[in-house]
Design a protein that fits this description.
Layout: H1 3-14, H2 25-30, E1 50-58, E2 62-69, E3 75-82, H3 83-88, H4 92-104, E4 113-118, E5 122-127, E6 133-134, H5 135-142, H6 147-166, E7 169-170, E8 179-181, E9 187-189, E10 196-197, E11 216-217, H7 226-229, H8 237-252, H9 262-270, E12 275-276, H10 282-291, H11 306-311, H12 337-343, E13 396-397, H13 399-409, E14 417-418
Parallel strand pairs: 12-14
Antiparallel strand pairs: 1-2, 2-3, 3-5, 4-5, 6-8, 7-10, 8-9, 11-13
Helix pairs in contact: 6-8, 8-10, 9-13
The protein binds adenosine-5'-triphosphate.
Adenosine-5'-triphosphate binds next to strand 1, strand 2 and strand 3.
Length: 419
């Protein structure tokens, strides 16, 4: 029996899942539960091993800081997560998922994880540092990207998506904030905390707990696909829809679906109500149109071998797919993280104080913040273990939407407004 096989079995036993054909329960009981090793090891580092530099970005439960390892001089992006905040924001499964998924991925279009460590109050992920900032910032600074810039960036996103989809993963939170640029201007996907795993990753069986049928879903309003809003099965089509939104946003400066409230945004998504700007070339219009198909199975690239069709789309006629990473990428708008942070809403959060990292809690305590019980070992989130990951977290409450969405489901399939 292979190690992965025994791991599959131990997980199946834990969850009373049916045994594979021909397997005998007594055989399984005799096998000790095996642990697997992460490629990116859990180190015994402390935060004092690093010189902390500028803040690269702020997430809902993390702060990402440029950090130089004092002994080797290597530079990383240290994703620092406050344990109390992780619990408070109900992000434990996101942390586990991100750690497990990043550990398994190895592609130039995906941010690399090198190591993890933790201390009494924080969890740390040592990530490849993307000094060019977020794609979001580039769009914001440039207003709109040219067709050639958009084609090259989209091609790099497509290569990364093809890879992660081939690994049985759906990113689920693809948006310009989660697409980062290296200092030489190439793109990398980041933030895999919401990833859905459809199958075992390589030789590690990661237990996919059936997602509770709650009235919640995951994603970001402007990039969420209509089928996700109506609780249809999640497929790679959800990422392809988000890709369509991102292509549109690069060319137009803003995403196709944006309302005055999230609820209005969802209504527009459900009705596929967006304006196709007249300055879009016919190729760009066609690509956006095919990615933003209401039927996830008809979205270009959603079928087997579909990526070949996507890459052959005339929008990419000038893209040399075989040399993508060698091509000169678009010139970056100057990236100043502190300035961007000041512009961002999240920076209004003053609870983070880097001088306190590793020493005491950086989060301002309030009576509503849960207490870390001694038995609650959150370090296990990033430790080597049995590969178990919990079900996913909540971004939106769908209850308040269901009525409106159900009504919208009856509307005409395609309501693309063209000027
Ligand atoms: N490897 C990296 N290099 C440079 N900057 C990074 C890196 N990883 C993350 N960042 C920056 O930090 C921000 C927050 O990171 P990330 O999205 O992973 O955090 P999060 O807490 O999971 O966020 P979310 O609010 O989406 O859940 C990113 O949007 C990006 O600006």
């Amino acid at each position: 029996m292979t190690s992965s096989h025994s791991m599959v079995l131990s997980k199946r036993m834990d969850h009373n899942m049916p045994l594979p054909e021909g397997m005998d329960a007594s055989e399984i009981k005799a096998k000790p539960r095996r642990k697997f090793s992460f490629r990116a090891p859990q180190q015994s580092y402390t935060v004092n091993d690093f010189e902390l530099g500028k803040v690269l970005g702020v997430g809902s439960y993390s702060k990402v800081v440029r950090a130089r390892k004092k002994d080797t001089g290597e530079v990383f992006a240290l994703k620092i997560m406050d344990k109390r905040r992780v619990i408070k924001e109900n992000k434990i499964s996101n942390v586990k998922t991100e750690r497990l998924v990043l550990d398994q991925l190895d592609h130039p279009g995906v941010v690399q994880l090198f190591f993890t460590f933790h201390d009494a109050h924080h969890l740390y992920l040592g990530l490849e540092c993307c000094d060019g900032g977020e794609l979001f910032y580039q769009i914001m600074k440039k207003g709109r990207l040219s067709v050639d810039e958009t084609a090259l960036y989209t091609a790099e996103i497509i290569e990364a998506l093809e890879y992660i989809h081939g690994q049985g993963l759906i990113h689920r939170d693809l948006k310009p904030e989660n697409i980062l640029l290296t200092s030489d201007g190439h793109l990398k996907l980041a933030d895999f905390g919401s990833t859905k795993m459809l199958k075992p990753l390589q030789d590690v069986f990661i237990q996919i707990e059936p997602e509770a049928r709650t009235s919640t879903f995951i994603g970001t309003a402007e990039y969420v696909s209509p089928e996700v809003l109506t609780s249809h099965p999640l497929t790679i089509g959800a990422d392809l829809w988000a890709l369509g939104c991102i292509v549109y946003q690069m060319l137009e400066g803003k995403p196709p679906f944006r309302g005055t409230s999230e609820y209005i945004t969802f209504q527009k998504v459900m009705a596929r109500e967006f304006m196709m700007p007249p300055h879009f070339t016919p190729e760009a219009q066609d690509l956006v149109d095919h990615l933003l198909d209401l039927d996830p199975e008809r979205r270009i690239a959603a079928v087997p071998m579909g990526y070949d069709a996507l890459k052959a789309h005339p929008f990419f006629s000038r893209v040399k797919w075989s040399q993508l990473r060698e091509l000169t990428p678009p010139r970056l708008a100057i990236w100043a993280p502190e300035a961007a942070e000041a512009e961002s809403e999240e920076s209004a959060d003053s609870n983070w104080d880097l001088t306190q990292i590793g020493r005491k809690l950086s989060i301002t305590m309030t009576s509503r913040v849960p207490t870390l019980k001694s038995g609650h070992n959150l370090g296990e989130c990033i430790s080597e273990g049995d590969g178990k990951t919990a079900s996913t977290s909540t971004h939106y409450d769908k209850n308040s939407l269901s009525q409106g969405c159900n009504a919208l489901r009856c509307q005409s399939a395609t309501t693309t407004l063209k000027t």
